[in-house]
DNA sequence: TAAATGTTGTTGCTAATATAACAACAAGGT
DNA sequence: ACCTTGTTGTTATATTAGCAACAACATTTA
C-alpha cells in the first residue's frame, strides 16, 4: 500500500482557502493518487484517522469532489483536479456575488451622506486600489489634470486611465522620456534628465524614485504614488489644502527646472 | 453614533468563505457604512470589542479591504464592495491556480497505472461532473455511441457534448421528440409516445422519468443519468459487464417497441 | 501648573467554537 | 472465531472571539 507521503504545506493552505479542511485536503489528495479506494485504504493513504475518514468523505461527496461506488464496501474516487477545483470555485464565486450585492446595500447608504474626509490623508494599499482611485479622480476632473511620474509607471498603469478624463479638461504630463508617438490629447513635458545630470541642479531630487509619481486634479485632489515599499505598492490620497499645495508647488518647481535646463 | 445594527447571517457566511473571519466581516461592513472612522468608532459601529479592532483592522489593510489615514488617531475607510470583493477573489483565484497545478502532479501519477475500476459502479454527483464524464466517454468512442434519453436532457445538457464524438463512429439517439432540424450526423429514432399510450404496451415504463437517460459507448461503458434526486442530479457510471449488458438490453428493447408501435 | 479625566493603542489572559484524533463497539462477512 | 466496515461518543488541539488592565498621550479642570 502506498505511504501517506507528505503533502506540501503550501498546497494545504491553498485548498484551505478554497474551503477545505486539512483532512478534506489530505483525503482528496490521497484519492487523486489511487483509483477506487475503500474507506480503510483512504485512511492508509492519507494518514487521516480511520474513524474521521467517513464524515470527511461524506463532505467531499457533498462538495462534488469525489464519487462513490455502489459496492460493499463502498469505494471512492476523486474527481480530476481541474473539474474539482472548478466545482469549489463555483461555490465561492456564487458567495462572492451574493456578498457583493449585500455589501452594496450598506455601501449605498453612506454615499448619500457627504464625505467628511476633506482634511485627511489616506493611505491606499495595492495597485488595483490605487488605479481605481486614480480612475475616479481623472473621470471626475472638471478643470485640470496634472501628472508628474516616471515613465515606467505611466506606461504600465496610468496612461489607460487618463483616457477617462473628460475631453475639454487639459491634461499635463511631466515625465523623463516617452516611447511611441506623442499623443496630441495630452500636453507633454519631457525632462531631459541626461542633460540635467551635467548641470549643478539637484537632479537626484527631480525624479529620484523608480515607480513613483504625483497626480493633481482640479488643484484640489492629490495622489502620491509611493511605489512598492514592502511588496505591494501604496499611495497617499488627500483633498487637504496642505498636501494639495505641496504637490502644486512640487509640480511647478520641477517644470520650471525643466525649462531652465532646456534653455 | 450608529448602532451596531445586526448583519444578515448569510452575508457573514459568504464573507467567511471568501476568507474573512466573523470580526473581519463585521468591521468591514461597519466601515462601509461610514466615512473615515477611528478605531473606537469602528468598535462602536461594528460591535467588535475595542481591543480586537486593532489586529482586525491590520489584517483588513493587509487584505486590501480598508485604507488608513495618516492622522492621529488613525482613521480607516473601506474600499468599495466591488473592488474589495475583487481583491479577495484575486487571492483565492491565485490559490486555485496553484492548487490545480500541484494537484495535477499527484493526479498524473495515477494515470499511468491502469484503472482497476472495470467492475465497479460509480455514483457521480453534480451535473458538471456528469457532463465531464459524458464528454470523456463520447470523445474516446471507437465503435458506437448509443443514447436513450428524454428530450429535455438531450437539449439542455447532452447534444453539445455529442459533437466531440469522433466522426466515423455512428451515433444512435432514441428520444420521444425532436425540436428543430434533424441533424444528419446522428441516427434518430423518435418514439411516438402519444400513439403508444393507446396500445396495451407498458408505455409507462418506456421513458417514465423526467430528466433521465442512459448512455452506452462501444458496448463497454455505460452511464445512467438518474435526474435530480435531492437537489443536484446524480448518475451511475460503470464498465462492468453486468450493467453494460442491462443497458444494452434496455436500449434494444425500447427500440424494438418503438418499431412495433410504428408498424 | 498640577491633578483629574479621557482616549488611543498594546499586551496578555480566558472563553467559545471548530477541527482533529482516539477509543470502543455493533453489524456483517469469511 | 476472526477480521473489516461503518458508527458513535469522548478527549485533545488550534483558531477565533472576548475581556481586563495598562502605558502613552492629549484635554480638561482646579
From TrEMBL, chains A, B:
Entries under Pfam families matching the protein: TrmB
Superkingdom in the source lineage: Archaea
Transcription regulator TrmB N-terminal domain residues: 15-81
SUPFAM superfamilies attached to this UniProt entry: Winged helix' DNA-binding domain (SSF46785)
Stated name of the protein: TrmB family transcriptional regulator
Organism from which the protein derives: Methanoculleus methanifontis
